[in-house]
Write a structure and sequence with these properties.
The protein is mostly beta strands. The chain has no helices and seven strands.
Length: about 80
Protein backbone atom coordinates (compact mmCIF):
# COMPACT_ATOMS: atom_id res chain seq x y z
CA UNK A 1 0.00 0.00 0.00
CA UNK A 2 1.27 3.51 -0.76
CA UNK A 3 0.13 6.97 0.26
CA UNK A 4 1.09 10.49 -0.74
CA UNK A 5 1.60 12.96 2.09
CA UNK A 6 1.31 16.73 2.54
CA UNK A 7 5.01 16.92 3.47
CA UNK A 8 5.98 15.81 -0.07
CA UNK A 9 6.77 12.21 0.83
CA UNK A 10 5.36 8.94 -0.48
CA UNK A 11 5.17 6.17 2.10
CA UNK A 12 4.95 2.49 1.17
CA UNK A 13 3.65 0.08 3.79
CA UNK A 14 4.40 -3.61 4.17
CA UNK A 15 0.94 -5.05 4.73
CA UNK A 16 2.00 -8.04 6.83
CA UNK A 17 3.99 -6.02 9.37
CA UNK A 18 1.78 -2.89 9.01
CA UNK A 19 4.92 -0.74 9.00
CA UNK A 20 6.39 1.75 6.53
CA UNK A 21 8.98 -0.09 4.44
CA UNK A 22 10.05 2.75 2.09
CA UNK A 23 9.72 6.53 2.19
CA UNK A 24 10.37 8.50 -1.00
CA UNK A 25 11.33 12.16 -0.57
CA UNK A 26 11.31 13.25 -4.22
CA UNK A 27 8.66 16.00 -4.05
CA UNK A 28 8.98 19.45 -2.53
CA UNK A 29 5.20 20.02 -2.68
CA UNK A 30 2.29 18.00 -1.23
CA UNK A 31 1.77 14.65 -2.98
CA UNK A 32 -1.76 14.52 -4.38
CA UNK A 33 -1.78 11.22 -6.30
CA UNK A 34 -0.06 7.84 -6.19
CA UNK A 35 -0.33 4.89 -8.60
CA UNK A 36 1.08 1.36 -8.65
CA UNK A 37 2.00 -0.66 -11.69
CA UNK A 38 1.32 -4.33 -11.06
CA UNK A 39 3.89 -5.44 -13.66
CA UNK A 40 7.01 -3.79 -12.25
CA UNK A 41 8.51 -2.50 -9.02
CA UNK A 42 7.80 1.22 -9.42
CA UNK A 43 5.37 3.64 -7.81
CA UNK A 44 4.36 6.83 -9.63
CA UNK A 45 3.54 9.94 -7.62
CA UNK A 46 2.21 13.37 -8.56
CA UNK A 47 2.22 16.61 -6.60
CA UNK A 48 0.27 19.84 -6.30
CA UNK A 49 2.92 21.52 -8.49
CA UNK A 50 2.25 19.10 -11.37
CA UNK A 51 5.55 17.29 -11.01
CA UNK A 52 5.42 13.49 -11.42
CA UNK A 53 8.08 11.07 -10.18
CA UNK A 54 8.58 7.40 -10.97
CA UNK A 55 9.99 5.83 -7.79
CA UNK A 56 11.81 2.48 -7.72
CA UNK A 57 11.00 0.10 -4.88
CA UNK A 58 14.24 -1.74 -5.70
CA UNK A 59 16.65 1.19 -5.41
CA UNK A 60 14.54 3.39 -3.11
CA UNK A 61 14.98 6.49 -5.27
CA UNK A 62 13.23 8.27 -8.13
CA UNK A 63 14.23 6.89 -11.53
CA UNK A 64 12.41 9.49 -13.68
CA UNK A 65 10.55 12.76 -13.32
CA UNK A 66 8.12 14.71 -15.48
CA UNK A 67 6.65 18.21 -15.19
CA UNK A 68 3.34 19.50 -16.56
CA UNK A 69 3.68 22.94 -18.14
CA UNK A 70 1.15 25.45 -16.80
CA UNK A 71 -0.15 22.78 -14.46
CA UNK A 72 -2.65 23.23 -11.66
CA UNK A 73 -1.30 20.10 -10.03
CA UNK A 74 -1.77 16.40 -10.47
CA UNK A 75 -5.17 15.29 -9.21
CA UNK A 76 -5.24 11.76 -10.62
CA UNK A 77 -2.55 9.45 -11.90
CA UNK A 78 -2.72 6.13 -13.75
CA UNK A 79 0.38 4.02 -14.23
Amino acid sequence: MAAGCADGTVKVWELRSKEVSVTFRSHSDPVTSVAWNATDSNVASGSSSGEIFLNSLVSGVAVANFKHKNSMGTKDLKY
